[in-house]
Write a structure and sequence with these properties.
Strands 3-4-5-6-12-11-8-7 form an eight-stranded mixed β-sheet, with no helix packed on it. The two termini are 12 Å apart. It is mostly beta strands. The mean pLDDT is 94.
């Protein structure tokens, strides 16, 4: 059994630790992650040659994302289209502070330097809830009251779809994903770029409290997905775990990985190295781990 204890980032976001969520690889030693308290930028970290330690972190402002266009960013994934790298950032889509709706699905054209051109999709939350009545009621409740809370995001290449992971609502022994076909490289980034959503319910092998999905990472070569699980509400006591899921199955299997009690993992991605694959985890307490 592997026990994960994140290493602190070598830098902070101003005076505060990075509140790191979704993460994606953009080059051999470069990865980008979200700070969900800073919705106007992505953060690019560069590793040492062995991909063991972070050497530096750069703030990459999102050009085109104004105030309120992306609230509570949680999910991040990479999509490759005709040799161009797109990054898609998603909001939690939750209700906060009684009536504030967190919305946002942003397409980013990645470049190695400077500001990142970004396009928010107007009305994504309303579009999704109108097409998935099973989520509409949860969309009116706050996360700790069993409301909608979307934290995971990855690209399902075989289906040409975005795959969202729900932290909530959740029930013991089950987690839920939403698959949304998307034309990520299209000329316009609007809800017309999206296809009909599909809910996917997965069984977990042994319930450990009520767990939700905190992030997802897809492996295009194998069709397998890595699920980062954790408590579905802030007052829950379910442990963080890693699970593997194949898109043809209706269940996920737990991996032999646990997390130190101080860990708060929020983002996960797999990446190739030396003929194998490694796992990178980022932590909303300001740390990371490479497995």
């Amino acid at each position: 059994m592997t026990k994960v204890r994140p290493v602190p980032f070598p830098e902070r976001n101003g005076t505060e630790p990075f509140n790191a969520s979704g993460v994606a690889q953009v080059d051999f030693r470069r990865f980008v992650f979200i700070d969900n308290k800073d919705p106007t930028a992505l953060f690019e970290m560069t590793f040492d040659p062995g991909i063991f330690a972070v050497e530096r972190i750069h703030r990459r402002p999102l050009a085109g994302v104004g105030k309120g266009m992306l609230r509570d960013p949680e999910g991040l994934t990479r999509v490759d289209v005709h040799g161009e790298i797109f990054l898609v950032v998603s909001s939690s889509l939750c209700v906060a502070d009684g009536n504030r709706r967190c919305d946002g699905l942003v397409r980013v054209r990645y470049s190695p330097h400077g500001e990142l051109p970004a396009e928010p999709m107007a009305g994504f939350r309303d579009w999704l809830l109108a097409r998935e009545p099973a989520l509409a009621a949860a969309g009116r409740r706050e996360p700790d009251a069993g409301g909608l809370n979307v934290e995971g995001l990855t690209w399902d290449r075989k289906a040409s779809a975005l795959l969202f992971g729900l932290r909530g609502p959740a029930s013991p022994g089950r987690v839920t994903l939403v698959r949304v076909p998307a034309d990520v490289g299209g000329a316009r980034w609007t809800t017309a770029s999206l296809g009909q959503p599909e809910l996917i319910h997965l069984r977990l092998p042994r319930p450990e409290g009520t767990q939700g999905i905190r992030d997802i990472s897809g492996d295009a070569a194998t069709g397998e997905f890595l699920l980062l699980l954790g408590r579905s509400t802030s007052h829950g006591d379910a442990p963080f775990r890693l699970a593997a899921w194949h898109r043809a199955d209706d269940h996920a299997g737990l991996l032999d990985v646990t997390f130190h009690r101080t860990a708060k993992p929020e983002g996960v991605t797999t990446f190739p190295i030396d003929g194998g694959r490694r796992i990178l985890i980022v932590d909303d307490a300001g740390g990371y781990a490479v497995l």
